[in-house]
Amino acid sequence: MERLDELETYIRDYWEELIQRKKIGIQKQEPQLTDELCKKLNVLIEQQLLKQAEDQERKIQYLFLCQMKSSYYTGSYEVMLGLCNTMIFLDEDKSYAYWYPKPIFETIEVDMATVTNQLRKKFIRLEHYELFYLKQQLLQDYWEILNQTYIKMGDRIDEIIVKSSLVLNDSFFMLSGNYMDMLKIVRRENNIWA
Length: 194
Hints:
Shape: elongated
Strand content: 15-25%
Radius of gyration: 19 Å
Number of helices: 7
Number of strands: 5
Structural class: alpha+beta
Strand order of the largest sheet: 3-2-1-4-5
């Protein structure tokens, strides 16, 4: 662990600069990300409308965005967007879609290459597990940027939900976090349709 701490300390300034550049780039691409997310959301709404036509009691309570850690290993860098009732992961009729938010993750390999080059200025030998650890940290930082963008999209998401004829619970929540983990409430709306 000391070696990983040493690597992180050495690269900290460059890392912060890299993350700041990413945030600025994503702000410019926010309309594109919003449009992509809204297209996915509209597909989920259509699926839920069909389910609600069969089950009049079915009410939607959650929209969730989940980080898929397995996609970091496979290199697909997908996240999951879903709509469901109060049961969240136990909801057999939840609707979900995988989404590759390209502006967020498309530069990961290039960014890791520059991080590696920066580290090689001081460290002669870099182990595979060390670079893998740093890549996981970078992906986590990128997830946080995506999460902040998702939260900013709240008004647009509410607008789409309201215009649909979905039957909603009294409270509607936007959630975010790791798949099959405790999701964090990032936005709550009461009587969204009123």
